[in-house]
Amino acid sequence: MAITARDIRGGESQVSGWNGLLGLDIGGTPVENLIVFGRLGGTAFDHARSSDSPNAGSAFFGVFGAGARYHFMPIDWYASGVLAMTAVSVTNDVGEGQDAGPGFAFEVETGKNWWAGSYRDRWTVGLGLRFAYLRSGAVSARSGERSDDPWQATAISLVFSTAYN
Hints:
- This protein has a single domain, classed as Porin, CATH 2.40.160.
- The relative contact order is 0.20.
- It has strands at 2-8, 11-17, 20-31, 34-46, 49-50, 58-72, 77-91, 97-115, 123-135, 139-141, 146-147, 152-164.
- Strands 1, 2, 3, 4, 5, 6, 7, 8, 9, 10, 11 and 12 form a 12-stranded antiparallel sheet that branches.
- Helix content is 0%, strand content 73%.
- By secondary structure, the protein is mainly β.
- Strand 8 (97-115) and strand 9 (123-135) form a beta hairpin.
- The protein starts with a strand and ends with a strand.
């Protein structure tokens, strides 16, 4: 579930709905049980509810950053965090878009991994829960308007993953 909000000169505009999450993490293990990685991904939702109209259209929040994950062995429970830059694009129900300048994001996640195959194969599948907070820079409408009111978003996502080490 994702919720995003923007304070437009004292009146708040809010968009909420079910989100889709897609990400790619690439990294390595400098010490046992610790993974450092780069993340490229994002959260998107379509046909969301809006405080301004019944259908907000769509919204996309992209992230590019770095993180770390620690695995508590032997149960392979993990906790991770990411600091990232974000980009935001929101389109309302009549097709008008608002793009935001670069902003800041952080994500925290916890979950459990299971071996998929033999230990030598080094493949795992996982299930986790991720919380993300994103805040954009200044917003500009595609019509040329500019505003200092940033989009802020929170998202809670159920994460299915596969990994190779």
